Queue: 2 jobs
Job 1
Amino acid sequence: VKVDNAHEDYHKKCFTCSLPNCNKFLDPQDFIILDNKFFCSTHPHCVKCKTPIADNEPLYEDENLGIFHQNCFSCNGCNCNLDPDTCAFYEGNVYCPSCHPNETCDNCHKIL
């Protein structure tokens, strides 16, 4: 298998997904490259670290925030565990109310 955008050659049996516990053979026309590793294009990607999430990997999924590896669902400022009801995005990163640059509501303590 010739991988044009990586300028590399592989045996067909060696061209597999780099995600632990996946290792599926990759379609040379339908895969993604992250940090010089090859992955199935069908894996969901973590909003925070942008890497694929394995089918059996613990994750956090929120309708408004997206999908995260369980250990990635933390504040970009202080790295504390996040409460989905009170955290919010700012410039592409998710923050707890203490670290978010916007003020919080005096009643519900959610980010304004």
Job 2
Amino acid sequence: VGCAMNFLFKPPSAERAMEYVWGGKVATFSVIHHRVHDKIMANQSAAAPQEDSDEIWKALHCARRLNLSNVLFLSGSEAAKDLALNMSQQIGGMRLVVSKGVAKHAAGSHEGANVSRKEFESSVWNDYVLMQQAEYLLLLSAWHFSGFATTAASMSFMPDGKILDAVSCGASKTYMRRFQIGA
């Protein structure tokens, strides 16, 4: 699958994606992927709901408990990204950055589906490439985890012990059941 993706899409290197997001290469990093409803992606002026605030707080504490020093917070909500940045300063002990691109759907049935190559790279592909390279992937969602995040982990053969439920800070039973990983 990886060879086919490379042939079909000519993805940017991880170094190029790191440069875009981190401003340079980092030795190790982890990702918190915050899944949001499509309507949140379509309405970027909406404030982050309270339940998102509580979950983001728990996810950041999980990253801190795991001693993750470089953390990339990905979300389809600009308000959630701002919230995560502010909360990470209160928690301390980690360098948190957020995706610079504004999330967009690439599927034809969604608002904003017609995106340029540059928009696709900045709002989707860099995040996808970085999720594949992460040391840990912390999944954060109120209802079920994102196929966007889980396919990135799958394509990179990330061990299931490195894919965690960000709220419980433990093995993601939902992920494991969905993809029939583990015993």
